[in-house]
């Protein structure tokens, strides 16, 4: 099968089959299979995946703890790809064959409801998510909703390998843009001191963004190796090994001129992380919700009221916000850490095992398809 882009000189040979990692049931390992290359319909672009990163949410989805009705599924929602086919219905969005693109995981929103018409399509009732309700990125080819896609580079080239900072782009389109939404919603003052609880994938990105904006940052975790990785990558930040400091507020004050924090980004999904956050906040402080525990967390109404505290939610935003995040990262050369290994699709189960055991200090594990 061949495809021509808007530039008639661009012709791409598209195979009939592709390799894909398939999770057939809850809590099962993935199996790499040869399956048909999807045919794009509606406003969906056909893309050739260049890099796909593993996110903790992928593990949660495949565990079956948040539902089982979408199995079997192709996981993955954090990637960069090259456009290889642009159906007629997708042409209004202006993408061309050879474009390098990323996207939030959202797709198939209606564009007609109040949320969609007010640029908040992440609240559309028809919304689907790649790697959950729609096939994800751990495959050689997939489809991307043109209305959700973000242009990274025009005419990048279908067969051009990712090099340099481009190899660190894929985590931006989940971890990066989620933290970005936290920053947008938090509305921090330039002089605010900020804590980050949990410095795995999300936490390391939060530390990078906050440091680049000039905030005093204190990174906290129970894993010393992740704190060490943070200080090596982001010199100048303060760190606290929570396991060694039972009086966490006192230790924060020692590192912050006798003051508590103006904001705390909770990037861990552990209940204990949320239990620790509120006592670290100064009056009018904000707790930014990024990590997602499977069970509800308790919050002290007295503490909230007495200190006029706020809880601020953040989530994967839409394409407009993702484009701003990408521009911010490129302008300041802030890119997520990516693991030094060139993981292949056949390594996905090993990647999942490493993440499950907390071995994330070396950066985001990413499958490269080049």
From TrEMBL:
One of its GO terms (cellular component) is cytoplasm. Residues 44-152 form the Alcohol dehydrogenase-like N-terminal domain. The keyword Flavoprotein does not apply. InterPro entries: ADH-like_C (IPR013149), ADH-like_N (IPR013154), GroES-like_sf (IPR011032), NAD(P)-bd_dom_sf (IPR036291). Residues 201-328 form the Alcohol dehydrogenase-like C-terminal domain. The keyword Oxidoreductase applies. GO terms for molecular function: alcohol dehydrogenase (NAD+) activity; metal ion binding. Keywords: Metal-binding, Oxidoreductase, Zinc. Its cofactor is Zn(2+). Pfam families: ADH_N (PF08240), ADH_zinc_N (PF00107). Belongs to the zinc-containing alcohol dehydrogenase family. This is Enoyl reductase (ER) domain-containing protein.
């Amino acid at each position: 099968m061949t495809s021509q882009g808007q530039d008639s000189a661009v012709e791409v040979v598209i195979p009939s089959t592709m390799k894909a990692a398939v999770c057939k049931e809850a809590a099962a390992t993935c199996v790499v299979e040869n399956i048909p290359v999807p045919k794009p319909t509606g406003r969906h672009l056909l893309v050739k995946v260049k890099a796909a990163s593993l996110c903790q949410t992928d593990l949660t989805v495949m565990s079956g703890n948040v539902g089982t009705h979408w199995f079997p599924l192709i996981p993955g929602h954090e990637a960069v790809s090259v456009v290889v086919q642009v159906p007629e219905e997708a042409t209004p969005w202006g993408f061309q064959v050879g474009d390098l693109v990323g996207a939030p995981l959202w797709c198939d929103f209606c564009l007609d409801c109040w949320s969609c018409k007010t640029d908040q399509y992440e609240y559309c009732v028809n919304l689907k998510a790649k790697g959950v309700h729609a096939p994800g990125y751990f495959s050689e080819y997939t489809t991307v909703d043109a209305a959700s896609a973000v242009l990274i580079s025009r005419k990048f080239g279908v067969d051009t390998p990712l090099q340099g900072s481009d190899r660190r782009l894929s985590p931006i389109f989940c971890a990066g843009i989620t933290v970005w939404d936290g920053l947008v919603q938090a509305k921090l003052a330039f002089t605010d001191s900020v804590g980050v609880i949990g410095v795995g994938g999300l936490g390391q990105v939060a530390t990078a963004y906050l440091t680049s904006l000039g905030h005093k940052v204190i990174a906290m975790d129970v894993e010393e190796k992740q704190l060490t990785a943070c200080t090596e990558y982001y010199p100048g930040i303060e760190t606290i090994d929570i396991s060694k400091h039972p009086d966490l507020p006192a230790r924060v004050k020692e590192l912050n001129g006798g003051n508590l924090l103006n904001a705390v980004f909770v990037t861990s999904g552990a209940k204990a992380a949320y239990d620790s956050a509120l006592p670290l906040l100064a009056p009018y402080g904000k707790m930014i919700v990024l990590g997602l525990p499977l069970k509800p967390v308790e919050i002290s109404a007295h503490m909230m009221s007495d200190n006029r505290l706020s809880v601020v939610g953040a989530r994967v935003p839409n394409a407009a916000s993702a484009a701003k995040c990408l521009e911010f990262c490129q302008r300041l050369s802030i890119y997520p850490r990516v693991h030094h290994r060139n993981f292949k699709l056949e390594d996905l189960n090993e990647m999942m095992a490493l993440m499950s055991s907390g071995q994330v200090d070396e950066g985001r594990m990413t499958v490269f398809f080049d």
